[in-house]
Amino acid sequence: MEEPTRNGVDEPSGFRHGRGTNQSGMRAFNERLVLSLVRRHGSLAKTEIARMTGLSAQTVSVIMRGLEADRLLVRGAPQRGKVGQPSIPMALNPDGAFFFGLKLGRRSADLVLIDFLGTVRCMLHDTYPYPVPESTTRFVVEGVKEALSRLDKAQAERVAGLGIAMPFELWNWADAAGAPAGAMEAWRHVDMRAEVAARCPFPVYLQNDATAACGAELVFGTAPPKGDFLYLYVGAFIGGGVVIDGRLQTGPTGNAGAIGSMPVPDGKGGNVQLIDVASIAVLERAMKAKGRDASRLWTSPEDWGDIGPLLESWMENAAEGISHAIVSACAVYDFESVVVEGWLPSDVRTRLVDAVRERLGERDTEGLRLPVVREGTVGRHARALGGASLALAERFLVGNR
User: Fold this and answer.
1) What is the pLDDT of residue 22?
2) How many whole angstroms separate alpha carbon 209 and alpha carbon 166?
3) CATH class of 7-92
4) Which class is domain 97-213+384-396?
5) d(CA 325, CA 263)
6) Side by side, which strands form the sheet with 43-44?
7) CA 210 to CA 98: how far, in whole Å?
8) Distance CA 273, CA 257 (A)
9) pLDDT tens, 201-236?
10) Domain with CATH 3.30.420.40 in the chain
11) What is the pLDDT of residue 85?
């Protein structure tokens, strides 16, 4: 698989919403456009792709033959219509490419290997009191080796990259993470992308963890492909992402959608940041203050057990803060929807979304159009999958980033 460069796949002038170009020299872009459409629709015939892209039937035929030869597309069963030759739908080949995603969090790390369809082939998990560069690098190197051992030689040769999803400026989160003084200072001098790239035989990419999770919703979820939505990920600390016109917006510093820093009322006449009321770390501190074991919050995200009133109190405060942040965000841009995801049991996520909707209905929103609030569709591993989507989008997609 030849790796296209950014310069080789820049969008031609006038490109909008999945239109191709019949100009020479744009084959790499058109190939990515075809792959993006097939991914979005599941399978497509040549005539359908020509209609969607505006490309000539001859151009589409050449592209699809090439993608099939590269083992990125596979043929489906012929579909017979009323007249003419049967159409042959083409779908993504699951073994066409593989991608690693690393989620580096304040309490745990996940390394995931996915195939071209986004199906998880391997996932490894590590928990810790706080992240340390050396042990994190070791986890990645050993995890990549283990995951590759589960592929055959041909599959291993089609690993297209590794994406890292991690909070920026980790050293500034030492107090909030409960780390000893100076314990996370080493992160100030570590380039994690470079450290991993030096030990891996494929390209390595890096993005803010919550933004990467938003990208996973865009690539693998059921979010409207051209919709405008605000994304919230409730992890150890809440973060977010922004999608406008179907594109993930990262901003000039890669930190767009840093909604955790948004001021919200503290209920006492003052303000705090959203991370101070809507982060799982807040629930963890409350549990520890009551002598409760909070380890299940990080080791058992599918079932937190019976937390009781502490969970109810946290959820009430989190919903209050999130609803305030949504109203503030919608005063700046009229998002169509808000997607709430998190390192949460599914029932907790559902209850939190219901509570946010209820709080929104109680707020003064005159002059604003309230967005639809819905649960994420990717799941609690959205950050790791978002990391994997970095390599996927960089190599094979258009229009998402």
Assistant:
1) 44
2) 4
3) mainly alpha
4) alpha beta
5) 8
6) 43-44, 90-92, 73-75
7) 22
8) 14
9) 999 999 999 999 999 999 998 866 567 999 999 999
10) 97-213+384-396, 222-377
11) 62
